[in-house]
Amino acid sequence: MIEGYLGRETVFAGGSLRLHVSTDARGFRVDFYRLGEETTLVGSSDWRPGAAAAAPPHPDGDPTHASPAVDWNWPEYTFPVPSFWRPGIYLACLVAEGTDRAAVAPERRLRSVSGPEREFFIVRSSNPGSVSRILYKKSTFTRHAYNRSDHRQRVRASSLYENTVYVDSPPTGPRGHKVSMRRPGGITDLGYWDAPFIAWLERNGYVVEYCGDLDLHREPGLLDNYRLLLSVGHDEYWSEVMRSHVESFVANGGNVAFLSANTCWWRVHLTDDDTAFVADTERPVGPDRPVGPATDLWWAPVPHGVGRPENTLTGVSFRNGGMWPGDWPGDRPRPGFTVQHADHWVYQGTGLKDGSGGGEPDVFAAGVPLIGYECDGAAFRYDADGVARATGEDGTPESFLILGIALLEPASQEEPRLRPGRWTVEPRERRIDSPRAATMGIRTANGTVFTAATTDWPRVVGKGQDPVVDRITRNVLDRLGSGGSG
Fold first, then answer.
1. Using CA atoms, how far apart are residues 387 and 340, in angstroms rounded to an integer?
2. Which of 56, 235, 244, 315 is the most buried (most CB within 10 A)?
3. Confidence class of residue 108 from pLDDT cuts 50, 70 and 90?
4. How far apart are alpha carbons 321 and 236 in whole angstroms?
5. Residues 6+ apart with CB under 8 A from 188
6. Which of 396, 317, 419, 407 is nearest to 371 (CA)?
7. Of 160, 178, 142, residue with least CA distance to 275
């Protein structure tokens, strides 16, 4: 058995990667791959001596669990990162030594990105912005929140969602559920959303640079080097600092494309020298408080939340959208987006019509698993012409233009809300009565913000499942990544 995790998930080309590894084998090596049009081998380490290390016990005393809240402190190994490695997302695949080292030659190309016994890391340009003016942000905080530290030989089921650890440390520290970013868990979400989209980017000649959430949190001037920031897939957990950096970027003329959903739903507080974070969510706290107060919910007013609705940045919120439970993509409805404002540059080259000249508006991506598994929306009302327009009563900026709308039907609003065959929706302000929907749209305030309003947008693009989604993505990248705006 072999497992590992990164000391830090990002490294500059020419720097050093620090891996923490536990194995019961006498030795191990690491095979390195880069995600691109294909996931290709870029090098292998020498064999290193192995050492076994235990997982930290969970405070609940259950021996099958492990604490998600502390640094696991496994043995550290350092590996040089060549200066010629291109910016990108890389895999470190751990190979345990057997009786015959020659029998475990590395694959030239990986058939699957996801799996145990591997971790991803990000190689950044040593001169940010010199390779591309588009910055791809991998949603690393969200990855850690859901990481259960499981292995195929051992299920630990400990994360921000299961067998949680609650810390209550004011006035010196934050209160909430805590997870460490220094624990193993393998790769899941990267293979579903990021790998297909990155392959599409490289196949179509789009060169981008990469960062993680912690980079955006720690480096105030990071975005100054770029024209366009990409948020991809499931981007749920944001720190206050990283959000402020993005808002300043837009205010100063920078552009953002949220090809994601459930975006900026929870606030996190970095702790332990930025190797762990705390989020006060609605997860169980203990027998005396079975449900937490959730004071880190971005949209909810103080003292029940942060009081800064995420849709003031993104234009949309998960509380106006919903989630389809079950497998991905599973049996969820596939309504597609109904077109509005077909003359907008986002639709250039699609040939779509919005019905303004007579007839019904076009719908794109119908029959394709584009909407969900989670999606975001703006509060809206239909005008006299049947066009959905954002009301702004939820905090969405007045300039937000709804370009596409997908009503979430059927929706479950009674308890228990998580029911098979229905969209699960979140509580929201009582005054808002618009239908739950995914609302693709755009706004401009010095810089431009485009939102796809659904987690699976990058997967549909990457898998080539709809030509209109493909064309819209090209239009957004070409215009906003080259210095243009809305």
1. 7
2. 315
3. confident
4. 14
5. 114, 143, 146
6. 407
7. 178
Mean pLDDT within 327-355: 95
Closest CA to 451 of 269, 250, 215: 250
**What is the side-by-side order of every strand in the sheet holding 2-6?**
2-6, 16-23, 76-80
Of the candidates 322, 185, 195, 172, which has an alpha carbon nearest to the alpha carbon of residue 261? Answer: 322
Token pair 């291109």 is found at 86
Q: What is the mean pLDDT of the chain?
A: 93
Say which amino acid occupies 245.
Answer: H
pLDDT category at 271 given cuts 50, 70, 90 is very high
Contacts of 164 (CB under 8 A, 6+ apart): 68, 158, 177, 283, 284
- Say how many C-beta atoms besides its own lie within 10 A of residue 360's C-beta: 10
Residue that has been written with the tokens 């640094």 in this structure: 71
**Cα 234 from Cα 259, distance rounded (Å):** 9
- Residue 65, Cα to own-chain centre: how many angstroms? 26
Strand partners for 380:
390
Q: In whole angstroms, what is the distance from residue 439 CA to residue 437 CA? A: 6
Rg of the chain (C-alpha set) = 22
Measured in residues, the chain has a length of 486
- Given a contact cutoff of 8 angstroms between Cβ atoms, the answer to whether 234 and 147 are in contact is no
Q: Is the pLDDT of residue 135 over 60?
A: yes
The span from the CA of 451 to the CA of 469, in Å, is 13
Tell me which H or E stretch contains 180. Answer: strand 175-180
Q: Name the helix (H) or strand (E) containing 90.
A: strand 88-96
Using the predicted structure, report yes or no on whether residue 103 has a pLDDT greater than 90. Answer: no
Residues 221-257 pLDDT 10s: 999 999 999 999 999 999 999 999 999 999 999 999 9
DSSP state, residue 477? H
Local structure of 168: helix, strand or coil = strand
Own/partner contacts of 218-221, CB < 8 Å, gap of 24 or more, are: 218/274, 220/245
Are 278 and 271 spatial neighbours (Cβ–Cβ below 8 Å)? yes
pLDDT tens digits, residue range 186-224?
998 999 999 999 999 999 999 999 999 999 999 999 999
Confidence category of residue 102, pLDDT binned at 50, 70, 90? low
Half-sphere exposure of 383 (CA within 13 A, CB side): 9
3-class state of residue 214 by DSSP: helix
Q: Strands 209-212 and 134-138, how do they pair?
A: parallel
